[in-house]
Design goal:
Largest sheet: none
Radius of gyration: 19 Å
Shape: globular
Helix content: over 70%
Number of helices: 10
Oligomer: single chain
Order of helices and strands: HHHHHHHHHH
Structural class: mainly alpha
């Protein structure tokens, strides 16, 4: 049976992709900080919104499906770009320490820091870990209130780890990102499960847009003044 696509999610993803491309092309770092503050969380939110635990018979089925849709494309594209990167090296550099390090970094799957080629691939393994993490949370805490409480704990822990204790930490498969990303993923799932929440969002969409834009601008300013150049 063919599944009908949710058009607004496709549109939101398209807008997010445009913002990602535009953000990477911006010259002013202060402007790019505004886009970085929401376009990646947007993708995690949208991924959570389409998560349907009833589609999977068990956790292993979900794990297998997630690996097929996220990790398989990641490794295929990574190996292709690695081979293309090798073609630019001299013959004596093919088995150098640098080339071996780049090859092994594919399996570490945190290309945001280790890969010198196509570093944007970091998102796929990070989303993989995020999906599994929320699936575990959902299986352990079935009530909405307990899920929200668990997400709040992840929010605090992810912030403390990324900002206070280990801002330069890079874990395999972007696990350090998943600790914070699961909050947005879970928010998307919970929002899509609540018809009342969706009705309120669409009813006050213009007000919420202005409110979130103002709040995002403020947070972005603080973030840039703290971590920007």
């Amino acid at each position: 049976m063919k599944t009908e696509r949710t058009h607004w999610i496709d549109i939101a993803r398209g807008i997010g992709i445009i913002f990602i491309i535009y953000g990477h092309l911006l010259v002013k770092e202060s402007s790019s900080f505004l886009l970085y503050s929401f376009h990646i969380p947007l993708f995690f939110f949208l991924s959570g919104a389409v998560y349907n635990p009833r589609k999977y018979a068990n956790f292993f089925t979900f794990l297998k499906k997630s690996a097929k849709t996220l990790l398989l494309p990641y490794f295929v594209v990574s190996f292709i770009f690695f081979v293309l990167w090798l073609t630019g090296l001299k013959s004596h550099e093919l088995f150098s320490h640098q080339s071996i390090k780049q090859f092994l970094s594919i399996f570490y799957a945190n290309s945001d820091i280790f890969m010198v080629f196509n570093a944007v691939l970091w998102f796929l393994p990070a989303l993989f870990v995020t999906r599994l993490l929320f699936a575990v949370v959902y299986r352990q805490f079935t009530q909405t209130r307990t899920i929200i409480l668990a997400l709040l704990c992840f929010s605090v822990f992810g912030y403390l780890l990324a900002v206070v204790f280990a801002p330069n930490l890079k874990l395999p498969f972007g696990a350090e990102v998943a600790l914070s990303a699961v909050v947005f993923y879970g928010a998307g799932f919970l929002w899509n499960q609540s018809e009342k929440a969706k009705a309120l969002l669409f009813k006050y969409k213009y007000f919420l847009f202005i409110l979130l834009l103002a709040l995002g601008s403020y947070i972005t300013t603080v973030d840039f003044n703290t971590f920007g150049q």
